Task: structure prediction
Amino acid sequence: MKNILVTGGAGFIGSNFVHLMLERGGFERLINLDALTYAGNLDNLSDIENDPRYTFVKGDIRDAELIASLFVQYEIDTVVNFAAESHVDRSITDPLSFVSTNVVGTQTLLDAAKNHWKVDPTDKYSNQYKPGVKYLQVSTDEVYGALGREGMFRETTPLSPNSPYSASKASADLMVRAYHNTFGLPCNITRCSNNYGPYQFPEKLIPLMINNAKAGKSLPVYGDGMQIRDWLHVKDHCAAIATVLEKGVDGEIYNIGGNNEKANIYIVKLILETLGKGEELITHVKDRPGHDRRYAIDNTKITTQLGWAPAYTFEEGIAETIQWYLSHQEWMDKILSGDYQNYYERMYKNA
Ligand code: NAD
Ligand code: DAU
Result:
């Protein structure tokens, strides 16, 4: 791993990953390609922007010409694709942008990797690649669909996505699989559960609820609030991705999760309690259409085969995260002063 192309590195998980990689080292250059959509935020990276190993490029993963030029200019040998439309609720109102970025964008990156890394790109029968190259697709547990009370997602669980978001991520995963099986592209797919931690855009449950509770606004809990998510600190997710880059076996899928199943209502009440606010702020609103009831990740493969384990307990991670949002009000205010209020109005007005 010499020159890494990180896509979507100005978003929540991508920016945490950029921080982690610059801390860890072990490469020459990290290129962060990000289109700076509503979710991309260069403030997330202001502390490292002058690091000589780091270069930011504003651009789109669907721009084949730009991607090709980056591969040549920076001699990219590793790709970590975080770039995506990532919010389930937005995928319900605008599915096409999810197909476009998540599926077409992934295919564009895969093509660039194949064309630049194959020893003889003109020979369709050859599966010979330059040594040490790797494409890593950051996917999600949502591709497996929803669980009932029992069971966990394993890497062998059939794909059964329920939202336009998860369907687009599952489609992208299938493209990665196809590029591995047809063209021999060295790649991995990681499928992680829900992340929490610093720099998450406040459309997502935890920062949204912290923000509303702090402002004394109502907390919109979908349906009965008994949906279960399996929470993992974002730094643990990023460390798992670094582990897969280092030790992952080509063509393999790795589930990532920390065995932290919590009902949404539990998280919301915990936030209220930490902020010293009353539960009267909770408002049960209309449920999300197609809302997955429960996710749970079986992390046996990555823990036993690659030796990764989460470092955070949920209790310390969530306490630290709540404090982070409380002490980064300026970061939040900048987001709130943009299009966020319009989004919020549109999203919650009929709920
Ligand atoms: P995010 O929405 O915070 O960030 C996405 C980033 O991608 C933004 O910086 C955005 O500007 C950029 N982007 C969007 N479209 C782009 C395009 N066409 N070209 C270039 N850049 C583009 O998302 P996140 O929560 O950080 O998620 C990152 C990845 O991890 C996604 O692929 C998501 O599916 C996956 N994932 C997220 C979670 C989670 O809990 N958030 C869990 C598992 C997997
Ligand atoms: O499981 C991994 C996925 O986790 C990622 O692939 C997605 O990119 C990421 O957005 C996240 O998806 P969720 O839909 O689980 O996350 P979200 O924060 O939107 O919602 C978490 C739960 O909280 C979910 O059951 C819906 C509920 N919720 C969410 C919001 C925004 C509410 O009850 N009220 C809300 O206002």
The radius of gyration is 20 Å. Residues 7-8, 10-14, 34-37, 39-40, 60-62, 82-84, 86, 101, 105, 138, 140, 169, 192, 194-195, 201 surround nicotinamide-adenine-dinucleotide (ligand 1) (CB under 6 Å). The chain has one domain: 3-200+231-259+290-312.
